[in-house]
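ping. complex inputs:
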Amino acid sequence: MDLELITIGDELLLGFTVDTNAVHIARTLADRGVRITRRATVGDTPADIVDAVRTALDRTGAVLTTGGLGPTADDRTHESLALAFDRELVLNETARDVLAERWLQRFGRPMPDSNVRQFLLPKGADVLTNRHGSAPGIWLEDSAGRFVATMPGVPREMRGMLLEEIVPRLQARAGATATTVVRSRTLRTTGISESACADRLAELCGAVHDVPLSYLPGLDGVDLRLTVNGVPAADADATLERAAHTVRERVGDWIYGEGDDDLAAIVLDALRAHGHTIAVAESCTGGLLGGRLTAISGSSSQVLGGIIAYDNRIKVEQLGVPESLLAEHGAVSEPVALAMASGVRERFGADVGVGITGIAGPGGGSDAKPVGTVWVAVDVSGVVHAVKPVLPGDRGEIRHRATQIALDRLRRVYASTSSVPGWTVGGA
Amino acid sequence: MDLELITIGDELLLGFTVDTNAVHIARTLADRGVRITRRATVGDTPADIVDAVRTALDRTGAVLTTGGLGPTADDRTHESLALAFDRELVLNETARDVLAERWLQRFGRPMPDSNVRQFLLPKGADVLTNRHGSAPGIWLEDSAGRFVATMPGVPREMRGMLLEEIVPRLQARAGATATTVVRSRTLRTTGISESACADRLAELCGAVHDVPLSYLPGLDGVDLRLTVNGVPAADADATLERAAHTVRERVGDWIYGEGDDDLAAIVLDALRAHGHTIAVAESCTGGLLGGRLTAISGSSSQVLGGIIAYDNRIKVEQLGVPESLLAEHGAVSEPVALAMASGVRERFGADVGVGITGIAGPGGGSDAKPVGTVWVAVDVSGVVHAVKPVLPGDRGEIRHRATQIALDRLRRVYASTSSVPGWTVGGA
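pong. complex structure:
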């Protein structure tokens, strides 16, 4: 089943509000076999609402809207629908009386007159109850079975109405016809570029076993999303599994997880499996790696803590980095990163130490060490290893990417050996 | 000037991605007198892209798009525009060669073949340079002067192209005609609830000097946004200034800044003004306060670093917190927070120390210390002070709010005294 979504509100067009409703509605419906094929956003202007609704009805015949149901003068969705369907606006007294009664009970005073406006609805509309707010939605259908259903713009109210009122009606319409679903699976890579991914998957031409493949580059790396669309629910998972298997074969160990997997959680699992503890020494990332590790609930059994050694004096005093190394190689150098990793490991009595030192910018770069130059070192039970990526992006992006690289080095250490202390330098 | 925006991508329709670009574009253009009158979102399907572009061209004649410019097979915006404008696709060799050269310089290897696809552009299109990524945008105009300009979907790339390439072209088109603007001003508060703000501003009834006022609660606190709409550019700032002045009078020192002001930057400015250095000791926040401070470019002159003391042993060994305090009061207690703040200040030789210890959840709470209980201590030149908020939200929200509270305590210390070492306990 295909649907169009129209989100209504000047605040959406002006950019004052991020349209999170659209995301929630699409995800909720996709897993129930309903696909949003188009989305339009219009302001609180009847002519624009009417035009968007008529176009969507002609194209798809099934329309959801959010927004513009409230009691104020700029809420004009229902009057616009009356125009679009050529119906009168009539006062729904039953719905009004229910709210007036709730209002009195809840606030101990009569409902203000301004609220009555919300119950002027196109003739013939079914009322959709709003259990989380005052404005009702409606389900309005023409003689050809084409329909518009309206929901409030307030996310909590919209979510309740979607689940309690809209989804059951959509399912009733779909009836006994076998429902097909949209379902997706995302493989997460890090350390490999979008184009290098594409080269590995080139001859698959964007589709793996007829499952379309999308590349989604982000700060954590490139996510590879496989999507089945219009497939019977019973087949969807097996089809996705076959496609994911092929992608895994081609892309290999650049893939660190799936879906919402966070590399920090994956690293913590590996540490836990080995009974290892970790401590971090951070310069340019200033605590972000510690922040990512401790964002995971239960991390306290593995994470001892760390040293934020932003100032070079702190690297010397708190981590034992020899001043001679700083003088000879500079703070952003392999020997300093290694000394930081080993220093924090020893001082904290941890199994694993990580050292990060780099130039996050925007200042501080040079020809030899441009902005984005980062040294990441890991010391796992005394076996050390360092890498020097040159990371793209602004200050925030470089810092986040540096934490991802550090976590990925650790993931690879634990993935590449069953006996970590015997791991050899450069083996990852 | 009116414009329509078309955001392109299956991931937007499926709800995998929140359309933050639409927000950024609307805000950036509104302040320059350009209004987005419609927004459409379509998938990576040429027929839908062509239909949306043609409809928008017929209606408004001025269209921006985001997304679908990359090197992979599902990036189909430019081929769709060639169809919509009935033009051939031709390889833009100049743009290709520029990227190939940049690629070689940066990565030391030739650009992969798959990247060439990005330079197949509709004939007659002007190339819009992408300084932050590889995919170029285009400006495509027909003989009637109707145009479409394309931007990448990656936010950083889109933002650069919007400011550097699109805005100057739009301004050149608008010429010397007088424009009215939509402009807003946001005052940022922290530590005061939305309803307490509303009580202080109650008799203003949501509008201050006819300027509508919105409350925007978020993790950093409640932002208060004043908006003028359809006002001549010359009057907008003075009108907003009068309204902001009134709000400041009512809300007072709960306001810490305006617009995008980050409390971390404000605290760093105060430290810099006093020539003070800072060190942090973090337990439940695990490095996030250090991360926020060092996110600010130039923070290295004030931020020495810190200790992430996630494990209690680290609190004892690295911060000198007496074991007896931990045994008697528990890790989440005023004496431990104070000992952490003073410990890190002394060990790092800083002027200011901050200690944060709390229960971020979801586990670990008790009746006496529920999840969200956080002790935040500051030690400014030996004068100490602690607060114990009980913070709402999930683990991530509690941790972020704890960093905001710590920063706000520091802001108030420096705001409340001209001679910080003489500051008295509880004075903030």
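The two ends of chain A are 48 Å apart (CA to CA).
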